[in-house]
# Entry
Amino acid sequence: MEDKFDFIIVGAGTAGSVVANRLSENFKVLLLEAGGEPNPLQSIPYLSPALLGLPHTDWEYLANPQVNACLAMNERRCSWPRGKSLGGTSNLNYLIYMRGHKNDYESWANISGDPRWRYENVLKYFKKSEDYDGESDHYHSHGGNIRVGKSPYTGMADIFCKAAEEFGIPRADLNAEFIKGCSPLVITAKNGRRVGSYGAFLRHARHRRNLHIRKFARVTRLLFEGPENRAIGVEYNRHGLSKFVYASKEVILSAGALNSPQLLMLSGIGPREHLESFGIPVLADLPVGSNLQDHVSTLVGPFIINQPITFNPETDLKPEELIKFITLGEGVLASTYGQASAYLVSEVAKSRNQSDWPDIQYFMYGTNMCDACTDRVAHSLNVRVDVLRTFYRDILGKNSFQIQTVVSRPYSRGQVRLRGRNPLLPPSMDANYFTHVDDIKVAVEGAKRAVDLVEKSSTFRALNATLYDVSFPGCEHYKFRSEGYWECFHRQLSLTVFHVSGTCPMGKPTSPNAVVDSELRVLETKNLRIIDASIMPHITTGNTNAPIVMIGEIGSEMILKSIQDSTVLEYTVKCLKCGL
# Structure
């Protein structure tokens, strides 16, 4: 028996949840998700790092062994957490709401040839889904699906931003227009609980008769027909049975920047030579998976201070904190791990005449390292336990903090490829971190300026803040604090920020780099779109959750507009025929 819908959406993650919500208002929609319900503990913001790597809610992906990075990881493989449940990675992330920089979207518009991707246009889609805990203005709005506001516990955020001001980094709204700036973190939470895409877009839409959700449904292949490669449905595996479902209008891939390209290639859409090496018939020779980007980072520090103002997980997580969280939705448990963020412009950006486009991002972590913390970081990020224990051994429990430095506009490009024709195999993922020389230059500069911000600002000097003077394992042969040392430090402790993007980039149909056009339609196919992080031509300057929601909003509207236009055209043709 054929199972027919207007639309089939593959993936109920950050973008897929948005699209399912918008389309199911008027059309029959099937939403296929490989995972199940979100873990109830994921609603507690503070537990985010502890819940990474759980097999029921995380794909547990590991990037391929690296040569230039991830050297302190087990088998030199960086961990890439990816959500596998209703809500996807928005259930695993650190809740940070960061839209990116104006120049990101101006660049997207130029690359795609479509002014609809310019900043002033996409701004209204950011505002559409936002319920801002503050005054409404040109950049913010109320009444949207996602509650956005300051974290209840800001810790050392004010101290960090005061020090940043001494170095010419002003306080700023990092979700408005800025060049450089500092702010306490803004997160997606309401009453102290996480507001991921499931809670924002799916939970209250599940009652709709138009919306059909099938959990534990692993899509294995897209179905095409005819010389135009018209997408007509998908094949999926559920509870050990293979099933087919069909779409009368469109199939939409929202499986994320790793699984969307994998599904395309398994179905014959991708690099010809690669597909033919596995005997996969090629329907369209497109550069699928070849533009992978991620924000690579590290934890600079720890910095030791002489006052007990940092958060100590071993002594400060008291019963009162649990009561405060349950009754008021406040306190540490209602907050994410980071406390503040700052942006600045590197010398590399200036040399490229991009002085108005920041490329270094900082996150302030005002939390002590503890014995349990070391094991948790090692587990969630695949870092060798012995390395972390050796490095942090003499500082455990002491008043200290760290600054995560992020290369926010990387030039290195990785790729996603198949491991074989078996759709149940994980994709082959090569990060290629630090393969472009400018990325390591930006990383080193970011580390040095972070140390200066701490040790040369009067704000931190009042706390007698100093860099922990132990070399990171593997970097002992470099002079401590030298450029060579910081380069080694980054290559050893190379951390993802969960922002894998760009593997099916948007572009002009004539571009050799494009996989989708400016309306997110897969080239050389019909009735197939991609709406997720993979369509980014280049990664946004900052956290990607908010931009992915925006992509879901604008992609949904593009679909609805195309249906409206086709209906008007069909009606016009009928009228002309009647007139004739």
About this structure: Residues 48 and 409 are 25 Å apart (CA to CA).
